[in-house]
DNA sequence: TTTGAGGAAAATATCGATTTTACGGCCGGT
DNA sequence: ACCGGCCGTAAAATCGATATTTTCCTCAAA
């Protein structure tokens, strides 16, 4: 239920969960849009139960809201919400990365290098899996923190953030920045076990995309 | 779905959610125990759908685990898990409390004082609502941080922590400590807008109960 | 005695249908 | 013409039942 890449799912609930989640994150479903059970049921060719269960799960990911007894809707967006996500993300990932580096092992280091390579390769090839691999790289950096709950928090915030990026329709502009250099810098500092440098670069990496996106959603005070 | 106190629920899903959640938190359902749909269905006198939906929601609260195609079970416990919760709680609540005090208003201050009074009153009367009011006091402290997601994280961690307290069967021992003084100290510092002092007392408050409980679950390195 | 395969029993996941609830327009009253 | 309450429609929530999967027990063979 955590890895978006492992797609040999079997249960209808999982299929519905990932499908709806993807639709919301990529903007295929508009923020605030009413999510009718029957509509999704037909669209995904499944029963009502898996849909309801999937929506319940997405509720806890802050991607879906449940209203009284009137069903579900895609979570709305706002500038303050975006700022909150950005700020939380910086704080939590900074913490997680420091813990990760403090507990660094050879295995972790190799996993990070590997994740980076795969992401970079997909980037150069224009592979559509880049988004998934990008997330996996960032998560690999934090994995050694040894705090599953913290990791899940970061994962959720990552998805919320990427949703705003999709909604701004800026996947291209975003990539055209020199994110590759930024990723390389983070990787280098992490491998060198330089927690301060790595964390600083990571946070700066986020704030840069953040300030870019902030224009689209209004900057609250 | 957030406030445990507002009990005029209508939907079967909500009833099931709070009922099962309460059973897990208070130890009425053992950690790791298999949660059979049919058993719960009879126990709560409802259909299978609300049960499944409630369990799905609890999954995201880390109180229930879903396994492959083999149903659900109550989340297991461990010393490392407890330590993780404690550490995360200290970090996140420290942050939230500082933000809350930084954005303090008269309304917030009054709400905090009120929440403390209610909790204290219930404590002196041996009122069973103490646990709920205790949580409400702590959440009131953080409410002004203006970060709903952070608040929810703290709320989840609070529930996970209180579960360990119940499992240690130490509700009494816990209360017999001078928690009243600790709460009063936090309240005083918060009202005085002394973020450093308030945060320090809050964290120390948690660590004290934490080190007490650590003995029950083993201290991982 | 242990191991492995087969089958029966139980539990889960899913579906289709029923019941309940909320919303929007209509009608009558003021 | 406007306001308030009633009814029809649509959607959600829930239930009962089915099909599929898993588990456990038994029995036979090594």
Secondary structure category of chain A: mainly alpha
Q: Biggest interface: chains and residue counts?
A: A-B, 27 and 27 residues
Low-pLDDT stretches of chain A are 1-8
Shape of chain A: globular
Biggest β-sheet of chain A, characterized?
3 strands, antiparallel
Quaternary form: homodimer
Summarize this entry quickly:
Chain A has 10 helices and 3 strands.
Structure notes:
Two copies of one chain form a homodimer. By secondary structure, chain A is mostly helical. Chain A folds into two domains: 12-74, Arc Repressor Mutant, subunit A (Orthogonal Bundle), CATH 1.10.10; 79-217, Four Helix Bundle (Hemerythrin (Met), subunit A), CATH 1.20.120.530. The first copy, chain A, is 70% helix and 4% strand. Chain A has ten helices and three strands, in the order αβααββααααααα. Chain A has helices at residues 12-25, 37-44, 48-60, 79-102, 106-125, 130-143, 148-167, 171-176, 179-191, 195-217, and strands at 34-35, 64-66, 72-74. Chain A has a three-stranded antiparallel beta sheet with strand order 1-3-2. In chain A, strand 2 and strand 3 form a beta hairpin. In chain A, helix 1 (12-25) packs across helix 3 and helix 6 (130-143) runs antiparallel to helix 7 (148-167). Chain A is globular, with a radius of gyration of 18 Å. The first copy, chain A, starts with 11 loop residues before the first helix and ends with a helix. The model of chain A is unreliable at 1-8 (pLDDT under 50). The A-B interface holds A 1, 10-11, 49, 52-53, 56-57, 59-62, 66, 69, 84-85, 87-88, 91, 95, 146-150, 153, 157 and B 1, 10-11, 49, 52-53, 56-57, 59-62, 66, 69, 84-85, 87-88, 91, 95, 146-150, 153, 157. Chain B binds a DNA duplex (30 and 30 nucleotides) through residues 10-13, 36-38, 46-50, 52-53, 68-71.
């Amino acid at each position: 239920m955590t890895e978006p890449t492992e797609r040999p799912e079997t249960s209808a609930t999982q299929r519905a969960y990932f499908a709806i989640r993807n639709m919301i994150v990529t903007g295929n479903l508009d923020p605030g849009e009413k999510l009718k059970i029957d509509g999704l049921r037909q669209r995904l060719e499944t029963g009502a139960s898996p849909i309801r269960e999937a929506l319940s799960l997405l509720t806890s990911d802050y991607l879906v809201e449940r209203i009284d007894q009137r069903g579900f809707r895609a979570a709305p967006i706002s500038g303050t919400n975006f700022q909150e996500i950005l700020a939380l993300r910086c704080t939590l990932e900074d913490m997680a990365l420091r813990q990760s580096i403090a507990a660094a092992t050879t295995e972790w280091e190799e996993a990070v290098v590997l994740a980076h390579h795969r992401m970079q390769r997909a980037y150069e090839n224009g592979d559509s899996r880049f988004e998934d691999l990008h997330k996996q790289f960032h998560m690999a950096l934090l994995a050694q923190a040894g705090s599953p709950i913290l990791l899940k928090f970061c994962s959720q915030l990552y998805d919320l953030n990427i949703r705003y990026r999709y909604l701004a329709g800026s996947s291209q502009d975003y990539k055209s920045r020199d994110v590759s250099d930024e990723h390389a810098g983070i990787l280098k500092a992490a491998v060198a076990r330089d927690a301060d440098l790595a964390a600083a670069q990571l946070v700066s990496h986020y704030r840069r995309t953040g300030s870019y996106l902030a224009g689209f959603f209004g900057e609250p005070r």
